Amino acid sequence: MDNGAASAKDEGLLSRMALNDNKAGMEGLDRDMINKIIMETSKGSRFYESELKREHQVNQRIEKIMLQKGQITEQQLKKAQAQVERVVSELERGRDLTRLIVHVDMDAFYAAVEMRDCPELKDKPMAVGSMSMLSTSNYHARKYGVRAAMPGFIAKKLCPNLVIVPPNFNKYRAVSEEIREIFADYDPHFQAVSLDEAYLDFTDHLEQRQSWPESSRTHRCRTNSSPTGEEHIEPEEAAPEQIDLSPVLFEDSPNSSPFLLSSEGVCASGGACEVFGTSVEEAVKEMRFRIEQKTMLTASAGIAPNMMLAKVCSDKNKPNGQYRLPSTREAVMEFVQNLPVRKVSGIGKVSEKMLNALGISNCAHLGQQMALLSLLFSETAWHHFMQVSLGLSSTYIPRHEERKSMSTERTFKELSRAEEQFSLCRELCGDLAEDMKKEGLKGKTVTLKLKNVNFEVKTRAQTLQSAIATLDEIFAVAKDLLKTEIENESPQPLRLRLMGVRVSAFVSLDDKKPLQKSIIGFLQTGKTDSTDSTQEMHQKQEKEHFSNHSVPAWPLAGLPSAQKSQKPGEGGRTSEPQSFFQRAHAKRLQLQAAKASTEEGGQGRDASVSAPTDGCGTSAAPTEAQASTSGCGRLTSDGLTCPVCFRQVETTDLNVFNEHIDRCLGNSCGNPNQSNHPDSESDLESEAECKALEGVNRCRGECTTESAKANGDEESQSKREAQPSLIKDAHPASSVTGANHETTPQSSVLICPVCQRTQDTGDLTLFNHHVDLCLNQEVLHELRGQTSPPKDPPSLTRNRTEDTGHLLPRQACKGKSKRRDSPSSPNPKRTKGHGPRNTIDKFFRL
DNA sequence: TACATACAC
DNA sequence: CATGGTGTATGTA
Q1: In chain A, where are the structural domains located?
Q2: Residues 442-501 of A with CB under 7 A from strand C
Q3: Does pLDDT of A125 surpass 50?
Q4: pLDDT, tens digit, for every residue of A346-372?
Q5: 3-class DSSP state for residue A206?
Q6: Is the pLDDT at A49 greater than 60, yes or no?
Q7: Would you say the C-beta of A348 is within 7 Å of strand B?
Q8: Quick check: A265 and A216 in contact, CB under 8 A?
Q9: Which of A21, A40, A218, A287 is the most buried (most CB within 10 A)?
């Protein structure tokens, strides 16, 4: 073996404990030495023992899989191969190379910020974090093997001169806001993944850009010579890189930019200027240039036809570089062939190890072994592998979904006394309740998480009949769970090192939306709408749409688990082709719908020039009904179902559809104006960030509670909650009863959940019809006024090529929009008790 | 639903 | 001295 540092026993462990030179900045370092130090430092600790144990578990899983592999017959393999090939061609058919997806990532973000603000640090190896945990390190430190998620004390052994700087999250957040403002200029719907990372769809921007005058592509260099001195003006590009293919992609932009750019020169005032071209590369360089000018920090970017590839590409020329993967099948395939599986987002340590055991280390192998993989892994898992091997993934950048859970957990010095455990538990519940209040959340499931001093983790959950939110309510449950565990262990005490409380299974507290959603639920004939799970509906929808697209970036988390469905005798699975066809079909339909509702293309505004951005609100704004329909309504192969008359409308053009609805509504109130629910809830994103950061802020005492917007619009919320679930069977009662109301018919009497009146009919069809009418009344009401339409007006720009992804108005489904449009809006910051420490660089979900 | 795992930051 | 916190998805029972 080539690793003298590892004993046979350690060897397996290396996959868990050893450093990953996977990431950038780790080239050419002495891995063996580093691993040796890591091992020596860790050895004997409880943590180490725990890792050993986990490693063992993984090894067993691998053994199991290998065993299964051994039992596979030629016959089965052959069958699987045929199956795989069918799927491949189906997927191939849906390949979409028309989008230009960009993934941007700030270089060593936290560390870079600290270095920027403290020149002393510039030439030193440094990291942000604490002795217990590092968030990130600068490139100098990485040479020593010091990296994110490594405890500081180990890092110190690797690099005794390492300077560890405590994190200053407020600052990072502020910088993040700055860069997001820039992102928004290229894609107002960009998805921030963390404080320093985002996905953008540059397609529309590029289309616009083609007709922009040079002045709009000109950017001034930082005027004030930075105090710190050196200042390079060049948007220096290290990467040699490929040819510019963009012209090909955009040659036919028919009604491209309706705007004539007001061309006020930017650089009139003097100072060096940088002019950027019209290609994607140039646009991305421009964005990075602006980021650097604005923040004095560098970013790296990847440009590719889908999210997964863009992400990988952004890593390619890091730091301070970019890489474009051309939008051709050949380029993509070649790129993917040499891609180590571990580089793919979603394939982590464990998956990597399992794949390696099968002789798979890069995506070429992945492709070659698909038949085998389809027999050893779950369907979702192998489908994902398949997509990866073909270089396919989502071409549509989804909006962030509603949160599904909220939690608080804390690590501490051993805590063994029950009394203290209870009081800590209560404290956690209090913190959690506070957080939930800010977002107006109520959930039905409480989960207690415990980690003992040996790092063994346990979770215990309980689901209630109704949703709760307050400290006392949560604690009442958590306390019981804890008590049970304590009793369970007694007379030994629980020796804890961590405790956490989580609430999930939220019910919608919203007033209006449930209505819309319930309609949708209705339209989904045959599906039960479990009353309070309105959001599930949406997520489901979104998900479908997502997968129709081209793979989400999702992992195969739970991993393999061999085919249980696999009958010994026959190896093949038959369901597959169908589901893929169906998906493809659905996809096509959605596409058509999406085509009509594609968001406006006006985002390409040039910040420094202030290009004319609007003027696009002209088209009939989609009403909520429309939006709902396009996003969630029943989309059959023949068209759309009108939420008012419930008839099929034979069109996939949402504008046409909208007119139809208008007619049904008996008036032409086509576009209720402006969106924004003034009460649209607080920004989840920053909220989440703050949450993660909390304790640290406290240390700095800088935490301000700027926006406590979650003002009490809560009273009104409790009102109508019950939703008309689709009653499918003879027992209406089975249709669940959501939170509040108990309008649900218990006996044979049917009561309309909308008008609350008893319906004297036993016929469910009739009853449903009545409810339909009631709902329509409400829809009508909403459409006529008060309710705000979703933001994105349909766009008239571009018609996409047929199988393109990019469906659905992102927020169509929900009246609630957690806007990210205004990156500048202040974040609610948390001031919380104590707590945790640091978090890894870029961490926070937005 | 409950629980354990994997994964991303 | 010392190995984090928040959130999501998936597999399985």
Answers
A1: 73-93+338-398+519-620+690-846, 405-506
A2: 497-498, 500
A3: yes
A4: 999 999 999 999 999 999 999 999 999
A5: helix
A6: yes
A7: yes
A8: no
A9: A287
